[in-house]
Amino acid sequence: MEIDARRFFKNLDFENMAYFYHITGAGNGELISEDGLFMKEHDLRTTTIRISADMLLDSDAFIKSEKGYNLRDASEMVIIGCYKDDVDDLVQINSDDNSIVWTDESSSVYVIPSEFIIGYIDMKERDSDFKIRLNSNFMGEIDIAEDFEECRSKKI
């Protein structure tokens, strides 16, 4: 399901939740939504940046600022979320057989599981009116799509 990024960001719950983003190349957002975000190191800061409410005062400007201006492949922004109490457990040991090997000396020892991937934004296609593609695996007990459908119907 795809929804308007402005509405999505406007309705984030910063009181109870922590949010992060990860910039990646074209086509990776869908893979990360399905399989999780593979990581070489256990430190969350090595591959994500925490999102604050202040960063989202102008969500289009926030997204555009991360496009990279063709200096790197910054096609998609993956949005990650968890309860604040769970931040320390967000990065887990990758016990799946679907590890990624980047070099002979480096592989995906850690992963942020798919259940914490809210979705991703395609930044390449436009300069405003961004859409987020929601991940149906996100924190199984939370029906985020239903919550944001409600927001859409109220035209927030």
List keywords for this structure.
single chain, 156 residues, alpha+beta, six-stranded antiparallel beta sheet, three-stranded antiparallel beta sheet, 4 helices, globular, disordered C terminus
Polypeptide structure, described:
This protein has 4 helices and 11 strands, in the order βαβαββαβββββββα. Strands 1-11-10-5-2-4 form a 6-stranded antiparallel beta sheet, sandwiched between helices. A 3-stranded antiparallel beta sheet has the order 3-9-6. It is of the alpha+beta class and about 160 residues long. The protein has one domain (about 1-155). Mean pLDDT is about 80; it is low at about 150-155. About 20% of the residues lie in helices and about 30% in strands.
Please give a quick description of this structure:
This protein has one domain.
In terms of per-residue confidence, which ranges show pLDDT below 50 for 5 or more consecutive residues? 151-156
Number of helices: 4
Apparent shape: globular
Domain count: the total is: 1
- Biggest sheet features: 6 strands, antiparallel
Structural class: alpha+beta
- What is the radius of gyration? 15 Å
Oligomer: single chain
How much of the sequence is in beta strands? 25-35%
Main β-sheet, spatial strand arrangement: 1-11-10-5-2-4
Helical percent range? Answer: 10-25%
Quote the distance from N terminus to C terminus.
Answer: 18 Å
Give the mean pLDDT. 81
Reading the helices and strands in chain order gives EHEHEEHEEEEEEEH
Number of extended strands = 11
